[in-house]
Each structure stands twice: as C-alpha cells, then as structure tokens.
Write a structure and sequence with these properties.
The structure holds two protein chains of two kinds. Chain A is of the alpha+beta class. Helix content of chain A is 20%, strand content 34%. Chain B has helices at 32-38, 92-95, 119-129, and strands at residues 7-8, 13-20, 23-30, 41-45, 52-53, 58-64, 68-72, 77-82, 104-108. The chains are: A alpha+beta, B alpha+beta. Chains A and B meet through helix 2 and strand 17 of A and strand 4 and strand 6 of B.
Chain lengths: 372, 130
C-alpha cells in the first residue's frame, strides 16, 4: 500500500509489523493504528500499561545564547525563567493569533547537569515549526537540531507504567514530579525521561537515540506483558486523550482557532510578557460570541464525528471537533466548539449526525479523571 | 452458511438468495473481512422493514470506535425483515457473520446485479488490498 509513497519509519517499525500492527500513514509516517482491538489497548492502558511508539513526534533541540528568551517570544506560556527540570505545555501562535501548534517545551539537565532546551511538536507540524523558528532566529546564534529521524520516543502510560520503568532506569519516574524530566540511563543507555503523557494516566515518556530504541522497547514490553499490559496504537491514543479532554492538533486546534477559544487557560500567560500573537489573544478574549471548546455527552452509542453541527433548538450554536464512543466511560462523548451562551454545564443541546438529531448535554472536561 | 454459498459486493456485503413462496429473498450481511477490518463495533443503525433498497446505495451504517461505515445493499428490492437483535449484540458479527449475523432480508426485484462476486473472487480482492 505504501509502495508508491516513501513514508518515514520509526526505529520500531519492524517490531510493529511483526506484532500485527496495522500500519497506516500518519503525517508522512508509517504508524501502527492498532495491534489487536482498540478497546483492549485502551483498557490495558487504563488498568496496567500501554506502550506507544510516538517517535513520529518532532524533537527539536536548541543551543546558543538566550534560547529561553527566544522561545518565550514565540509561545503563549512563559519559558524564560522556568527552572531546569520543568516541562511546559504551550501553544505557538502566528501574528493573528492562529494556533500553529501545541508543543511541550523542556528545560532539562543533561547527564552532566548542564541545562538545555528542547521542544516536542506534532508530526504534522514539524516542517512548519522548524521553518517558523528558523525565520525568527536570524541575527541570533541559536541552532536548532531536529533529531526526530535519528531518535525515538516511547510513551509508557498507565497505573503500572512507572513501576515498570523504575526497574530499568537509574532515575525512578515516580521521583519526578508531574511534568518534569531529566537525563538519565535506561538499560544503561543515555535517555531523557519525563513524567508526561497524553492518555490521562500516570506514566512517563522516554527519548533515546534510534539505535537504543529496540532494546529499551523490548525490556519495557516484557515488563508490561507480565502485568497484562502491551503495545497500543494511535487509535487507542486518540480515545484515551479524548476521555482525558486533551486537544488534538488538526481537530481542536488549528490556525483558524484562537487560544482564547481553547479553554486552556493554564497554557496562556499574558501578564508582563510579549509574544507573537499576544495582541490577537487579548482581542479575542473580549469577543463574547467566540465559540469555546466544550465537552458534550451524547445519548446512545452513536458517535458524533468532526464537523457535526450542534444546535440549541433551531439555532446552530457549535461544531464538533472530535467524538467517539469511548471504552472507559462507555459513552458517546465529543469535544465541540460552542457559543458561550450555550455551554453551561447541563445545557441540553442536539447534534446533527448525518441528518439525524441526537440529544447531547454539556459536561465538564476532562470527561475522565484517574483516581489518585 | 459458509461463505462459499454466498455472493459478495466489492463493498464487503454478502447476499444469499433463496426462493420463498415464489419470491426471491436475499439475506444480506457483511463479510468476516469487513468485521475484522472494522474491529470494536459499537453501534449499528438499521432501517425498518418495508424500506426500499437500491443496489449500491446505503441502507444503514455500522460504527466502530474509530470510524463510521455505510452498509450498501447488494440488491434492488424491499426490506422484508430486519435482524433487530443485532445492534444490541454486535459481537455476533464476530462469531457468526454468515449466519446469526445476518442484517436484513430483501424481497429482490429484477436481476441479480452483475458486479457481485463469488467467494474466491472476493477473497482475491481482499488479499490484493493488503
């Protein structure tokens, strides 16, 4: 199927094929969408361990003078002055406030304790973001090293994830507060370890050079398999993140969406800062007609998909950006952009799914929260 | 029923045609290949008996966690019976797609469309898609 198109392959590509991974094209990469069943992979992540090859995500390393100030001017959340060890979820916006990408900005120590900055960006936006950064760094000595195709990234997620990785790592992931990271050795190999993820579960993510990916994947996998965990594909990643209320670029976020609409207040820091897009965000916040990201729960098992229209009575008041029948909640849930007058919790709305109206209720996001 | 007794549409539906009281009745379902490709079925939307169906047109939809797929009628005619217990027991499609997993029965009008295939030809199509 992919013979006429050269798709990028992660260092774990052959493993996926050998383990019945259904490979699909995703943002120019050949990626496993599922191995067994989406519901099984989803549930094993909620109950034990799900392992995700997320090597397609862009990994950009920065060097030079005043990197944090440079990144601070391009992100909706403060980078300058953030202490070493911390990781920040942030948006990058263009001059008109359109969202270019949602990213993680890492300020971490290397093995010698020397701090560095890196960023993880969406696979679909990597080229765009690299260009965007390159265009804006002229006149500085900042270097951007895109190591996406020479390294791997593995997400180990679930209630037993950290316990498994602890057995292989010099640093116990549980010793890292949420959204922090460090450089350590895993299976004796230099690795970046962070307490991060995109599933709503506890867990960690590991970044290693390509040549060490298979060894570390195999070691974690055998620990995961011993506790009814295993590999999970992009489809389960999508249902997990949806339940956890996390936006996905290309669905909830795009260049036509302003951060003021996203209900991601923690990721937008305006006070005492100047960054590209800031004026447009301040402006958008005053617009009382701007649709806001909102959670919906639908009656029945039918799922609303992207672009389904949302109504209050006869009036169109929103649009669905993601939706699925989800395995943990066993409900049909959606994220939608809804007019601020109609997004109070409990509001009864209806969603047009291919010509039929279905009852929906505004509910809180995240839809699912793990018990701590 | 074994798949060798059935005819298949390119869109993965199967049909079995039998004479009943002088009428041609087609039992229609979806193939094991389709069920396997969809995985994690959660919902099925079916029409009522009495609805007219047209070969190649949608008569309902089946939804998995991942996506929604249309069900296309392989035949022209009128629905005479619907497997109403199926939407609440979608696992039957996994265990018995060519028997208990039937979806609708259609009183066939006109000839059997020529683009339907036997099982061997259908399997060949599925194999080539991989």
């Amino acid at each position: 199927m992919d013979s006429d198109k050269q798709l990028l392959k992660t260092p774990l590509h052959q493993w996926h094929i050998d383990h019945q991974g259904r490979m699909v094209e995703f943002a120019g990469w050949s990626m496993p969408v599922q191995y067994t069943s989406i519901i099984e992979e989803h549930q094993q992540t909620r109950n034990s361990i799900g392992m995700f090859d997320v090597s397609h995500m862009g990994r950009l390393y920065f060097s030079g003078t005043n990197v944090s100030e440079f990144l601070d001017g391009l992100t909706t959340r403060r980078v300058a002055g953030v202490e070493c060890g911390k990781i920040r979820y942030s948006l990058m916006t263009n001059d008109s406030g359109g969202i270019l990408d949602d990213v993680l900005v890492y300020h971490l120590p290397d093995l010698n304790g020397k701090p560095f900055h890196m960023m993880v960006v969406n696979a679909s936006n990597r080229a765009k973001i690299v260009n965007w950064l390159n265009e804006r760094k002229s006149g500085t000595d900042i270097q951007i090293d895109d190591r996406t195709e020479t390294s791997a990234m593995i997400a180990v997620q679930g209630p037993l994830a950290n316990e498994a990785v602890k057995k292989l790592s010099e640093v116990d992931p549980d010793s890292l507060p949420y959204y922090t990271g460090t450089t350590t050795r895993i299976c004796g190999k230099e690795a970046i370890l962070s307490r991060t993820g995109y599933t709503g579960e506890d867990g960690c993510e590991i970044m290693i050079p390509s040549e060490d990916a298979q060894l570390i994947w195999d070691e974690v996998f055998s620990l995961a398999a011993a506790t009814q965990g295993g590999a999970a594909g992009l489809a389960a990643r999508d249902t997990l993140r949806l339940e956890a209320g996390m936006p996905l670029y290309g669905h909830e976020l795009n260049e036509a969406t302003n951060p003021a609409q996203t209900d991601l207040k923690f990721a937008i820091q305006m006070k005492g800062r100047e960054f590209v897009g800031r004026t447009s965000i301040a402006e958008a916040r005053k617009d009382s007609d701007l649709w806001i990201r909102t959670g919906l729960e639908l009656e029945g098992r039918r799922a609303a998909r992207e672009d389904c229209k949302v109504f209050h009575g006869e009036q169109a008041v929103g649009v669905v950006t993601s939706g699925s029948y989800t395995p943990t909640l066993q409900k049909s849930i959606s994220m939608a952009y809804i007019h601020p007058d109609h997004r109070e919790l409990g509001t009864a709305l209806s969603v047009d799914i291919r010509g039929k109206l279905h009852q929906a209720t505004v509910v809180k996001v995240p839809f699912y929260q793990r018990s701590v | 029923m074994t798949p060798e007794e059935l005819i298949f549409a390119e869109t993965h539906e199967w049909a079995h045609i039998a004479e009943q009281d002088g009428e041609k009745i087609a039992t229609i379902g979806i193939s094991a290949n389709a069920v396997e490709a969809l995985t994690d079925l959660v919902y099925m939307d079916l029409p009522a008996a009495g609805t007219a169906v047209t070969a190649g047109n949608s008569f309902g939809e089946v939804e998995s966690v991942k996506a929604t797929s249309e069900l296309y009628s392989p035949m022209n005619g009128e629905i005479v019976e619907v497997n109403t217990s199926l939407p609440d027991n979608l696992e039957i499609l996994n265990s018995d797609p060519y028997g208990e997993g039937w979806i609708i029965k259609v009183k066939v009008s006109g000839d059997t469309p020529e683009n339907l295939m036997d099982y061997a030809a259908y399997q060949k199509q599925c194999d080539e898609a991989h």
